[in-house]
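ok so for the tutorial part 2 we go from a plain amino acid sequence to predicted C-alpha cells. step 1 is just haveing the sequence, like this:
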Amino acid sequence: MSKTKAVAHNTIIQFAGKAVSTALGLIAVAMMTRYLGQTKFGWYTTTIAFLQFIGIIVDFGMTPVTGQMLSEPEYDNKNLLKNILGFRLVTAGLAFGIAPIIVLFFPYPLEVKVAVSFTNISFLAISMRQVLTGFYQKKLKMYVQAIGEVLGRLVLVGGVFTLIYLGRSFLPFMIVVTAASIVYTCILFWYAWKQGYGGLAYDKKIWKDITIKMWPLAISIMFNVIYLKGDTVILSLFESQDKVGIYGAAYKVIDILTESAMMMMGLLLPLLTYAWSRGMVDEFRRRFQKSFDLMMALGIPMVVGAILLAEKIMRLVAGSKFGASSTPLKILALAVFGVFLGATFSHAAVAMNKQKQTLWVYISDAILTLIGYLIFVPTYGMLGAAWMSVFSELYAGIFLYFTVRKFVDLKLTFTTLFKIIIASAIMGLSLWFLPDWHVLILVPVGG
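step 2 — the prediction. this is what the C-alpha cells look like for a chain of 447 residues:
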C-alpha cells in the first residue's frame, strides 16, 4: 500500500472511530446534564477544567514530539518509545500528584476537591495516552486508538446509565469518568506491549533529546493553558457553579468540534516532517497547502453550523435546562476557526523544528488574554470569557501563520478556500430557511 493510500485508510478508520466515540460521548453528556442539573454539572466542569489546566501545563507537546522523533532516522523506535513513556510517567505523575493539594487553596465546594483527589488518575492516563497516540499516528495504525476510545466511551455510557438507574450522586460519576479513561489507555498500552513497544526505560541521552525537542513546545503550551482553559477556571472563581455548568455544557460541544482539528493534523504531521527532514521543500509546500485546504473544509462549515443551530444543539445535547448554553456556544463557535488555523500552522512549525520561533506568539497571546479575562470575566461573566476565547484563538492562528511563512516562504493559494466559503454560505442559507426542522435532520441537510 502506498503512503498516500495508507494515510487515507488510516484517516477513514480514525474518523469512523471518532464518529462512534463522539456519539457515545454526547449520549453520556446528555444523560449527565439532565440528571445532575446545572449546579452539579458545574462541579463536573470545574473538576475537569482544573485538572485540564494542570494537564495542559505538563502536556509538553508529547503527541507531536513523539510523532516527530519516531519519524527521524537516528532513533531506534522501540527504545525511543519506552523512554518517552518513562519520561511522561515521571513528569505527569509529579504534576497530578500535587493537584489534590493545590485545589485545597481554591474556593471550590468540598465535592469538587474530593473529585480532584482521584480524578487526577484519569488525567495521568490521558497523559500516557498522548504518547501512544503519537506512536500510532506515526505507524498509521490509528485503528488501535479508535478501538480504545470507543471501548472507553462504552464504559462511560454504561457506567453513567447504571448510576442514574441507581440514583447515585456526583462523586460516583467522577469514578466512572476515571475508569473509562483508564480502560482507554490500557488498551493502547496493551497493543504496544504486544508489538514489543511497551514498557518504560531511562536513557540519559534520549531523555536529554526529548527535553531539547519539547522545551519550546512546553513553554508555549504553558502559556497556551492560560487562554485554552483559563476562561473556565477564572469563571469558576467569579461565578456560581450553575453558571459554570451552563458555560461548560457549551464548551463540551466546542471540544468535540476542535478534537477533529488536532486529530487531522496529528495524522498529517508525520508526512510534513518526512518531507522537511529530507530536504523535500517543494513537496513540503504541496503537502502543507493540502493540509490547509482540508482543515478549512472541515472548520468553516462547523463554525457556520454551530452558530445557526446553537440552540437546537444545546437542547439536544444537554436538555431544556441548558438552553441558555446556546448564547456562549454561538460566540465560542467563532473560536473554532482560530483553533483550526492554529492547529495547521503550529503543526507545520513542529515539522520544521521551528517551535522556538513561535514562542512569542503564545507568550503575547497568553498575556493579552489573561488581562482580558481579569477585566471582562468579573463584569460580563461567561460572555466575557467566551469573547476573550475567540480573541485568543484567532490571535494565535493568524500570527502563527505569519511566523511560519517567514521560514519556508509559504505562499498559500486561496482558490479552494473561496470555494469552501461559498459552499458554507449556501449551507448556512439552507439552514436559515428551515428553522422548524429538527437538528438531526438539519445537520445532514446542511452537509
